[in-house]
Amino acid sequence: MNALIRDLIDKKETEKIQKPNFDTRIGREFLAFYLKTKFKQIINYDKKSGNNLFLNVKPDFLEKFLDRLINQPQRKILISITGESASGKSTICNEIQRCIEKENLPISILNTDNYFNDISDLIKKHGDFDALRDAGYDVDSPHNFQLDLLRSDIEKLANGHDIFAPKYLVNGTGVSVANAIEVKSKKIIVVEGMAATYSEVHDMFDIKIYIDLDNKTRRKRFLDRAKSRNQDHQNALKHWDYVCVAGKKYVIPAKDKCDIIANGACSLEYFTKLLEYINLITNNFCEV
């Protein structure tokens, strides 16, 4: 599979088509046609693989994406990656980060988990986070995110402006530190996390990816992760029950609105090749 992908996105071959000037609309339309052809090749081959990445791709996705690239070439490419807890979102983004560092790709990652509201006072009142959750606090409700700030920050990144995102501390204190993480505006902006599914920001993305994985595998990943963090097993089981309910309530309904349903058990290397492909083919549509 990797050999085929390398053939499809071979940099030398790609650069042959980059030599002309694509500043004009006609040039961008030609490059868009090339992108469409290459992407369809990957999708068709993927269908024949034993462990495919693309579980589903919306029929109108490519046309809409290419139309946006043609008509708004200066705007950055916004990609959302979402899915239920332990589906593989963070793992994929960690792989993307590794690839960024290795290949110097023009990609920035924004984690929506850092946009949780500051709930430190509520945690102090109830004693700890688990007690707050058990008292009925719906952690993943859209009301408990700074969604206005998230939308504003995504819009700034899309228009070429760097931002300082908040940082939500995962040490159980519920503290949110304002302006703590610098995020550069690069050609491709990947926004990861549950909040990317919410209606306040969902319409902003050029490519909406939903990571899908069976419940049995997700449960094992979730509990293994809790164990690695020295979390109490019974509390981890309680929180698993909570995230399953939250997933059904907030995440799964957005699945049908996503452009690509991706296999959470698929090869990370293959997913990375897809991002490399998008970078190589689209680098004439907008500046790095």
TrEMBL record:
One family from Pfam that matches here is: PRK
Which species expresses this protein natively? Candidatus Galligastranaerophilus intestinavium
For this UniProt entry, the molecular function terms from Gene Ontology, in alphabetical order, are: ATP binding; kinase activity
Matching InterPro entries, A to Z? P-loop_NTPase, PRK/URK
Q: Which protein is depicted?
A: AAA family ATPase
Which ranges carry the Phosphoribulokinase/uridine kinase domain? 78-262
